[in-house]
Specification:
The complex is a heterodimer. By secondary structure, chain A is of the alpha+beta class. Chain A contains 14 helices and 16 strands. The longest helix of chain A is centred in the last third of the chain and has 33 residues. By secondary structure, chain B is α+β, with helices and mostly antiparallel strands. Chain B is built from 14 helices and eleven strands. A six-stranded mixed β-barrel of chain B has the order 3-4-8-5-7-6. The two termini of chain B are 24 Å apart. The chains are: A alpha+beta, B alpha+beta. Chains A and B meet through helix 2 and helix 9 of A and helix 2, strand 11 and helix 9 of B.
Chain lengths: 434, 439
């Protein structure tokens, strides 16, 4: 331990002596850590269990259903979001914990009595009673609307804290009424805000029964599964996801047997994380993950080469010093450990700079940074609430990732130049002209 | 001097090896990110063919049948048409409004929709070309050409719609569509035909038009659909017939938007239709670019390009600073025997220039092989290319490769030279006696 503190002391002294070298080293490391950490946060927000989507590890998504005639001479093809008939059919499966149908519709005409508010609009979601089982919303007051409200088309609403505060300047708004698109809704629950960077199925300012929207379409006939609904469901446990997918396949096989005119095909159910990579019929989650891998590699390898070059030049300058240390009995292993510790110290300082820089990047670009790496069509909503939450930015897995990155970067950049400079014999090192 | 530099590079091969590999990797990395960034920027910089500033889209909505404000008696097609015409009249009569137009469908700039079709130059239907149809309703007083400020391909003047447009089968086509169909642009009075064999007479040719900010101009025609020659009442007029208008040049946009929100919007409610506000065409363009990922792609590539260049800068500064410091005595000796500062600086700059040139040359060869096998990272499809047939550099494979490679080389070289100049100038500005003190 004493040795390590000695190394760090030495590194501190060298850092102060070689200010330009140290600042370039720290900036280079900071830049790499900042961008890698920004990438980590983007991935964390996209895939980690976060409010209110804590069950992401067992959530499955169906965003579309396609329909083709059984008559093979016809080239007709339809693709659309599913409808609530499919939700009802899925509800009967054994491995389903809960299933919900979500209608996304954008509205911007709302007011309370005569008080007209901002023209920027609000984002409502039209959902059913099981929505509150699939997602874990934190109710600050009141409760979700019930399946009876849903069936009876009762005009009730669950609203976000920000919505309540914007509309009524208070969160104590149960039983209050507001008007949306000419319909009056009664507030039955107030939930904690959902950051707008979360999935489009949960980001909203208010949640209303789907039966209150004109998009709630039952389909043309008993077998028609097309409508305007996105489906999210939770399996009973992550272990039964495959069984549930098999069950859905079997359900669709039977459905296609019963429908004499059309074949229906679901685009899904996809496991939550994989669904983010779906582009229509095409889904190759591993191919998409590879893209992230290449980016991560570039963010690490390029600065590592950068640092290696600098360390290599520096080691060349310190060959005399290393030669003297060797003369007094220091082994290559000891010297290598010392060099690695010295550089690790600088890397950690760079890591701290990187963390600060990454927060600055995230804060200043919060309205679009999370969707930065999304391919294809990007759903975005302007919510009354903020884009990023504390749990997205400050958590142990991200900090642990940064520490691991520092080690990796240090290992990648310092090891080879250090070993190369230690290969020289003592005489060679001492003979080197400065 | 050149031989000395090459010798120097060889002597420092271990340190140069690192920077060479970094430059090589950055060369590949920059190629990957600059290809889409440069091509996208080049597309974006092509003239839109219309004046976006001052254009607004009226956002209308309709009460749903389950709304308590919904009035079923006012929801017939004939009444809806009258209500909608009344709203159009209200917009037309605004003192700030210069011109207006009513679309059929989502035919407006950056709507995100694309209404493609086939058009023929002869009645024998032998010469078929693909085009984008912009459908509009010739409501009395409306003028799509003035609202967009389309310019005549020949004179460059802002065009106005023919007064008899609604009563005759007239069509306005873009310059590139005229070239595709007739190989010339003075085609007013010529006849063309749509897939439905409807004959149209060309009433004017406007300068090339870009429907989306990040796209290249696509052959476009302005016409009324054969099935709807005038404004028809329907259940969804707020989707079917979008109202767009232009404000006069002397009107302050902010003041107008404020007045619209507070005074005009509340008055624009007829029957079950009500106004939810206005969007500028700049806002629509930005939203579409975001929704379709174009904005994110540009941001992402720009951020990665900056990252790559910063890494090169830091790497070169760091390496050359250490190197110049190590060679302080050598520089001192050179200066004491009469070498000028500029000669020493030139030696170092040439050294880093050679490194950059060698690394970028290798990375360009690698990328040439990659592009040959897999294609560019951003390139129009063959179908689009055949239709657009424009000689933009980004559409020619050789020129495209040359431009991107050139940009990669130049930015890397520039950054590397700056990165070399800063530390070396610090060292050569020392007095020779100072530099030689440790000797």
């Amino acid at each position: 331990m004493n040795k390590i503190s000695l190394y760090i002391k030495q590194a501190w002294t060298m850092m102060r002596q070689d200010r330009l070298y140290s600042s370039i080293y720290i900036t280079g490391t900071g830049l790499s850590i900042a961008l890698t950490m920004t990438l980590f946060v983007i991935l964390y927000v996209k895939f980690a269990p976060l409010y209110p989507e804590y069950k992401r590890d067992r959530t499955l998504i169906i965003n579309a259903v396609s329909m083709t005639p059984k008559d093979t001479t016809s080239n007709n093809f339809w693709q659309s979001t599913p409808n609530y008939k499919l939700v009802e059919k899925l509800r009967e499966l054994q491995n389903i914990d809960a299933v919900t149908g979500i209608v996304c519709e954008w509205n911007d005409e709302f007011h309370e009595a005569s008080t007209r508010l901002s023209s920027s609009g609000v984002s409502p979601l039209f959902v059913d009673a099981d929505y509150w089982k699939v997602y874990d919303f934190e109710f600050l007051s009141g409760s979700p609307f019930t399946s009876t409200d849903f069936t009876a088309k009762t005009k009730v609403a669950v609203v976000s804290k920000s919505f309540a505060e914007t509309l009524f300047k208070s969160t104590d708004v149960l039983e209050n009424k507001f008007s949306l698109d000419g319909s009056e809704y009664k507030i039955v629950g107030v939930v904690k805000d959902v950051p707008s960077s979360m999935h489009q199925h949960t980001t909203a300012d208010l949640w209303l029964p789907a039966t209150c929207t004109s998009i709630y379409a039952p389909g043309e006939n008993d077998y028609d599964l097309r409508g305007g609904v996105f489906i999210a469901m939770t399996a009973k446990s992550p272990n039964v996801i495959d069984d549930l997918q098999d069950e859905v396949d079997e359900m669709m096989r039977k459905h296609n047997q019963q429908d004499k005119v059309y074949n229906h095909k679901l685009l899904g159910p996809d496991i939550f994380w994989a669904n983010g990579f779906r582009q229509g019929e095409y889904l190759d989650e591993f191919d998409s993950l590879m893209t992230y891998g290449y980016i991560l590699l570039a963010l690490l390898i390029i600065p590592a080469l950068n640092l290696s070059g600098m360390i290599s030049s520096k080691m060349n300058r310190r060959r005399n010093e290393l030669g003297i240390r060797k003369t007094y009995g220091a082994t290559n292993r000891q010297l290598l450990t010392q060099i690695l510790w010295e550089n690790l110290f600088l890397t950690f300082v760079g890591g701290i700079v990187g963390i600060i820089l990454s927060y600055l990047i995230l804060m200043s670009t919060s309205n679009w940074i999370i969707s930065l790496l999304s391919d294809g069509f990007i759903y975005s909503k302007d919510l009354l609430s903020s884009n990023l939450s504390v749990e997205m930015l400050f958590n142990w897995s991200i900090f642990g990732g940064v520490v691991a990155l520092c080690f990796l970067l240090n290992f990648l950049s310092a090891t080879i130049p250090a070993i190369a400079s230690l290969r020289h014999s003592i005489i060679n090192s001492l003979n080197q002209k400065q | 001097m050149f031989r000395t530099i090459l010798k120097q590079i060889w002597n420092q091969r271990l340190q140069n090896g690192w920077i060479f590999f970094e430059l090589l990797l950055v060369g590949i990395f920059l190629w990957v990110v600059l290809d889409p960034l440069c091509s996208q920027t080049a597309n974006k910089n092509i003239d839109r063919g219309y004046q976006q500033e001052g254009m607004y889209l009226l956002n209308m909505n309709k009460y749903a049948p389950n709304s308590h404000k919904y009035n079923k008696e006012l929801d017939s097609d004939s009444l809806a048409r009258l209500q909608y015409l009344d709203i159009i009249r209200a917009i037309r009569n605004l003192p700030e409004v210069e011109s207006f137009s009513v679309t059929y469908g989502m035919s407006y700039a950056n709507s995100g929709a694309f209404n493609g079709g086939e058009i023929f130059a002869d009645s024998a239907f032998s010469l078929k070309k693909h085009y984008q149809a912009y459908f509009f309703c010739p409501v009395e007083g409306s003028d799509i050409l003035r609202t967009y400020r389309f310019r005549d391909a020949q004179s460059g003047e802002v065009m106005t719609i023919a007064p008899d447009f609604a009563t005759r089968n007239l069509i306005y086509i873009s310059e590139n569509l005229a070239r595709l169909l007739y190989d010339r642009t003075d085609v007013v009075g010529e006849k063309c035909y749509d897939y439905n064999k409807t004959e149209y007479e060309i009433a004017g040719v406007f300068k090339d038009y870009k429907d989306r900010d990040y796209n290249q101009p696509y052959p476009t025609a302005l016409l009324t659909p054969y099935f709807s020659k005038s404004l028809r009442g329907s259940a969804n007029m707020h989707w079917q017939n979008m109202i767009m208008f232009r404000i006069k040049d002397n009107v302050d946009a902010d003041e107008f938007e404020h007045r619209f929100e507070n005074e005009i919007k509340p008055t624009l409610a007829r029957g079950n239709y009500y106004c939810t506000g206005i969007s500028t065409f700049e806002e629509i363009a930005l939203k579409t670019a975001h929704t379709f990922g174009e904005l994110n792609q540009a941001r992402k590539n720009f951020a990665f390009a900056i990252f790559g260049l910063l890494c090169v800068f830091l790497g070169i500064v760091g390496t050359f600073w250490v190197r110049a410091n190590m060679r302080r005595q050598e520089i001192g000796v050179m200066r004491s025997i009469g070498a000028s500062k500029s000669r020493i600086m030139l030696q170092y700059l040439t050294e880093s220039g050679i490194l950059v040139t060698a690394a970028i040359l290798v990375s360009t060869i690698i990328m040439a092989n990659y592009v040959y096998a897999n294609g560019f990272f951003y390139y129009p499809s063959m179908v689009t290319l055949e239709t657009i047939a424009a000689d933009y550099w980004q559409n020619s494979p050789l020129l495209h490769f040359g431009v991107i490679s050139g940009v990669v080389y130049l930015v890397t070289l520039l950054i590397a030279l700056i990165g070399t100049y800063i530390p070396v100038s610090r060292t050569i500005n020392e007095l020779p006696s100072e530099a030689l003190r440790d000797e």
